[in-house]
# Entry
Amino acid sequence: DAKTTQPNSMESNEEEPVHLPCNHSTISGTDYIHWYRQLPSQGPEYVIHGLTSNVNNRMASLAIAEDRKSSTLILHRATLRDAAVYYCILRDTGSARQLTFGSGTQLTVLP
Amino acid sequence: GAVVSQHPSWVICKSGTSVKIECRSLDFQATTMFWYRQFPKQSLMLMATSNEGSKATYEQGVEKDKFLINHASLTLSTLTVTSAHPEDSSFYICSARDPAGAVNIQYFGAGTRLSVL
# Structure
């Protein structure tokens, strides 16, 4: 799977939007962009994924650059429970292989 | 989304004993499950891929005789840490892919924190 680059850490104030960036300049045409997050002392959980178009679900929005070399996970109103490590991972269409985790972004939400 | 249940969530054992961790897919059948290990302040590292009805595939550096994996059914995989030592203390996490689901989303158990005294 192609490599992604994320900031090590970010801070946000509670109830404000958070934009978590991810660079993936070597993304291939068949790679989906997946986001997972890991809350403290928990296993990772799926957040959202997309291919080319922006995506919205109940947890977050995913904005994908036109050239697909970067993407941004958007939490519209951060809560204290959103404090977690957020991982941006590329997955080839149809891949049944394991997820490979980088170091992710540690999001701290300030009350 | 699909649910993966992992048990126990926390275990303390004496050095030299064996510990079994169970991973179940509750609402889907998983022909493949993955076992990860995570040390404090580090990311998840894949230990092995568990295949139903066949031998597990281990990552380089992971001792297959120490970390026994059994995937006897489509909904259950077990990881047994044999003759555990303090350096095996870690957070163990299993995951499974719902083959009927969209775009290879993986679902994770809540993890098992192993402390070896």
About this structure: The first strand of chain A starts at residue 9 and ends at 13. Chain A has no helices and nine strands. Residues 32 and 51 of chain A are 5 Å apart (CA to CA).
